């Protein structure tokens, strides 16, 4: 009887070990495709974005919605702007327009449409277009229906256990500022509410010109955060849990 109990206990331990060692690392909202057809890839990506953007703490993958801009200095011709304690939201509601995967060519293409809001503190000193700026206060930027297209150069690698993984080698992107960008910025000119309101009105009436003047560093920062987050996910989750298509030779 004692031996029987020992055997049962041993079997239970072994079964638990096998079960834990074969457990999927990918969250259950990851729905792998059986092919690289765009229709399936678009749906799988759309299914994943709302939850993925919240972060995956057990894999060390941080949140993308919100993500925090602690301190982002932007030096432009004539003006220095610094964003502080910023929070970016909206990525979880992005609409996936297109996904293409060319495994043999190591190319992955993603195109999404997003409404993005950036809130935080700011300081600004210098001259922006026609106006002198000497401001410090709260800021809110709403970007409506921006379209982001990323062209990612991928790679493959094995982890310490010999399992294959996706990797990101490099990327480039295009960014359409969308239908509208609305600025809500307080105290653009210290001690002069009338001038501050005049400058703010100008910024909103000429939002495209203004955004093209200083928007690129903010977008670059957001893209880098997104790519670094994706790298952490791909480092953690094996290829065979993400796509049911044989991995190319590498």
From TrEMBL:
Belongs to the TO family. The gene is LOC106122012. This is Circadian clock-controlled protein-like. SMART domains: JHBP. One of its GO terms (biological process) is circadian rhythm. Keywords: Biological rhythms, Signal. Residues 1-23 form the signal peptide. It comes from the Eukaryota. GO terms for cellular component: extracellular space. It comes from Papilio xuthus (Asian swallowtail butterfly). The keyword Signal applies. Pfam families: JHBP. The keyword Ribosomal protein does not apply. Gene3D superfamilies: Haemolymph juvenile hormone binding protein. PANTHER family: BCDNA.GH05536-RELATED, PROTEIN TAKEOUT-LIKE PROTEIN.
